[in-house]
Amino acid sequence: MNILRQLELEHMKATIPDFGIGDTVEVHYQIREGDKERVQVFSGSVISLQGSGTRRSVTVRRLVAGEGVERTFPLHSPRVTEISVRDRGIVRRAKLYYLRDREGKATRLKPNLGKLQAPRSGAGSGLTKPAAE
Amino acid sequence: MTGTKTIGLLGKKLGMTQIFLADGTCVPVTIVQAGPCKVLQVKTAAAAELPEGHRTAANNRGKKGGKQPRPRQADGYYAVRLGFENKPARLCSKAELGDLKHAGLDHGMRFVKEFRLTAAPTQKPGDEVNVSVFDGVKFVDVTGVTKGRGWAGTIKRWSFSRQPTSHGNSLNHRTGGGLGRQHSISSGVPKGKRMAGHYGCEQVTVQRLEVVKTDTARNLVFLKGAVPGFTNGYLVLKKTIKNERLIENKPGLVVKNAAAKSMAKGK
């Protein structure tokens, strides 16, 4: 294997939950307020996954008081402590930027009822840990 | 200000990526394969410092006074010559092989450089030098050959500004602009006027790159920031000549070698 990829693997988290575009997730993110640290939860739909290896990041969009808010999290940052999947969605795009032009009910994504597509487009994809590890 | 000159390492750029520190800071790093290097030759300031068996050279056969052993000249300065990456003997000239025999090698070395030192080196020919020479070193200077850009215009080569694309401008969008002076006392194009020409493919030293991490088992150095040249390009790594205390919080400086030399002279 390419030595650079090997080294990136060593700096990646061992497990990243399996989620994909259109899923609704909760991202637990450590923030610092003065001297204190606490965990903030940001939940919304995954509208973009990009990068590979240690650089892989996820963009989550949610509506706060009618205003769209997007945050991009580096998946392998030690500050992202947990990502949990709340809902699966069915989408036909790799990037859901069209949601930015929509309001209210139109922002709903088609739920994936019962049928889990495994594996999903893969949050950890781009680089996957070898099966042995 | 340059302080003591210590041994550095030869290496190879493996590429760039980013890593996270424990506090979550994301650092752009260049991963460099630094060593292991073979010591090919040790240079000494005085003849007395040569190893016992090396104080006399072989007899000058066929020459006047050829029967007497001739004292070997010292080099007049301290240095070690390092080699990095093996080169098969079939690719070497006989002179190269003969030279490397002193270090006990029967093959060549692809990248060979000399490091000047202020004190007598502790290494002997044939020794291996690895990334442990950078133990406790926080910043390094990295020398490499930049990517060649071929014939480049003034915008790329000298960071000139572009001219307007419209408002009556025609055919003069990326041109360099005026060249000369129009005074009666001194007309003509000033010496050193920056113009288009060959750019890149030149030796450049990036000073004061932070060592984020070293991997002694695999001889890797993680440097914060970029280093000159292509992936797999050869590099020379040295402890930085900058005063670490003074430069702690300043961003990295890129100095072309000619400029660095004139600066050093000025001091």
Q: Which assembly state applies to the chains in this document? A: heterodimer
Rg of chain B, nearest Å: 24 Å
Counting DSSP H or I runs of 4 or more residues, the number of helices of chain B is 4
DSSP summary, beta strand count of chain B: 17
Biggest sheet architecture of chain A:
5 strands, antiparallel
Q: Please tell me how large the radius of gyration of chain A is.
A: 16 Å
User: Regions of chain B with pLDDT < 50 over 5+ consecutive residues?
Assistant: 252-261
Order of helices and strands of chain A: HEEEEEEE
SS element count, helices of chain A: 1
Overall structural domain count of chain A = 1
What is the overall silhouette of chain B?
Answer: extended
For the report, how would you describe the main beta sheet of chain B?
A: 6 strands, antiparallel, barrel
How confident is the prediction overall: mean pLDDT of chain B?
82
CATH topology of chain A: SH3 type barrels
Shape of chain A: globular
Distance N to C terminus of chain B: 8 Å
